[in-house]
From TrEMBL, chain A:
Name listed for the protein in its UniProt record: LrgB family protein
Annotated keywords: Membrane, Transmembrane, Transmembrane helix
Membrane topology qualifier: Multi-pass membrane protein
Top-level taxon of origin: Bacteria
UniProt signal peptide: none
InterPro entries tied to this protein: CidB/LrgB
Source taxonomy: Bacteria, Pseudomonadati, Pseudomonadota, Alphaproteobacteria, Sphingomonadales
From TrEMBL, chain B:
PANTHER family: HOLIN-LIKE PROTEIN CIDA (PTHR33931:SF2), HOLIN-LIKE PROTEIN CIDA-RELATED (PTHR33931)
Origin organism lineage: Bacteria, Pseudomonadati, Pseudomonadota, Alphaproteobacteria, Sphingomonadales
Protein species of origin: Novosphingobium pentaromativorans US6-1
A Pfam family the protein falls into: LrgA
One term under GO cellular component: plasma membrane
The protein, known as: LrgA family protein
Classification via InterPro entries: LrgA/CidA
Keywords in alphabetical order: Cell membrane, Membrane, Transmembrane, Transmembrane helix
Coiled-coil zones: none
Record membrane topology: Multi-pass membrane protein
Main location: membrane
Subcellular location: Cell membrane
Highest taxon above the source species: Bacteria
Transmembrane segments: 25-43, 50-72, 84-105
Length: 230, 126
């Protein structure tokens, strides 16, 4: 019986079951950022690991089929960007300038503020890709010697607060253009922000997904250049 | 379906190979994304299956990072030591990034403008 706790079958079924439950709650709430399914399924699964005395390494191997899909999913982000090529061409200058400014602000402010707290370098490497979408952030953090799990949770948290405060913050700054608003939310708060932007306006949503995908590539490129320089 | 899955994995594999050969910090999957984009530009045609498969993957992205997030179970020490800093830095950085991106975008839009001010239906994939 105890052998079952080390199998893929068991942990795949449990992970999908727990996630589905959390996702149902999230859907019923109208996708409120604070009820993001990952935010609630993660602690439940951690609880189950501790309760059954299963080491994380066992769980990680058992759920490999799920995490494996992240790679092809990241590759696939090229498709929505390609679909929006007409809009990208038309808004090329604002997109390039805002993307560059946003990506640099994100890296510098995240690493800068955290280093004021005296965090060690592997924690700094985990926050550097904060603004990218989770799979990209985990891959980058791993490359930089950071902790992918930490990167995943930081990114989620950034998405949640970004989605919650996007509307009041952008109103405060008096940015009314839905293209500027959506793009900013996507660059700063990736997929969770984009989901929120789609609730407000379809142009804002499309611009947010564009901002997310472009920033994933830009932040990855900026950080790898930085690594070469340092 | 199979050719589409092959296309995605081939892009990722090439990206991973490039990553290992150059030692570039750019992850293989991100290089793969750039390669797929280049492929779409070089060989332009309708790809309904690719749209469906990548749409499915993107729609289920959230569950794919649960196994990694559960890895936090091993990060108790780091969270105890740097938890507050992480929360503060993430919040400040998210607000600043959003503000800077929105303001620069608006400024560039006013200064240089879109080449064509009317957002038309031609935005949708051709």
């Amino acid at each position: 019986m105890t052998g079952l706790l080390a199998t893929s079958l068991f942990w795949l079924a449990v992970t999908l079951g727990v996630f589905e439950a959390a996702d149902t709650v999230s859907k019923r709430s109208g996708r409120r950022p604070l009820l993001h399914p990952v935010l609630w399924s993660t602690p439940v699964l951690i609880g189950l690991l501790l309760w059954t005395g299963t080491p994380y390494e066992t769980y990680q191997q058992a759920t490999f089929p799920i995490s494996f899909l992240l790679g092809p999913a990241v590759v696939g982000l090229a498709v929505p960007v390609w679909a929006q090529r007409a809009r990208i061409r038309r808004l090329a200058v604002p997109i390039v300038l805002a993307l560059g400014a946003g990506a640099i602000t994100s890296i510098v402010s995240a690493v800068g503020v955290l280093s004021l707290f005296g965090a060690p370098s592997e924690i700094l490497a985990s926050i550097a890709p904060r603004a990218t979408t989770t799979p990209v952030a985990m891959a980058i953090a791993g490359q930089l010697g950071g902790v992918p799990a930490l990167a995943a949770v930081i990114v989620l948290f950034a998405g949640v607060i970004g989605a919650m405060f996007a509307t009041p913050l952008l109103n405060l700054l008096n940015v009314r253009d839905y293209r500027a608003r959506g793009f900013a939310v996507g660059v700063a708060a990736h997929g969770i922000g984009a989901a929120r932007a789609f609730q407000v306006d379809s142009t804002a949503g499309a611009m947010a997904s564009l901002g997310m995908a472009l920033n994933a590539a830009t932040t990855a490129a900026l950080l790898s250049i930085l690594v070469l320089l340092v | 379906m199979l050719p589409t899955i092959f296309l995605l994995l081939a892009c990722q594999l090439l990206g991973e190979t490039f990553h290992r050969l150059t030692g570039l910090a750019l992850p293989g999957s991100v290089i793969g994304m750039i390669l797929l984009f280049a492929w779409l530009a070089l060989v332009p045609r309708e790809r309904p299956t690719l749209t469906i498969v990548t749409g499915w993957l993107t729609a289920h992205l959230a569950v794919m990072f649960v196994p990694a997030a559960v890895g936090l179970v091993n990060e108790g020490e780091a969270l105890k030591a740097d938890g507050v800093g992480l929360v503060v830095a993430t919040a400040i950085s998210t607000f600043l990034t959003m503000a800077v991106t929105a303001l620069v975008f608006r400024w560039a839009l006013n200064r240089f403008g879109p080449l064509d001010t009317v957002e038309t239906e031609s935005d949708s994939p051709a």
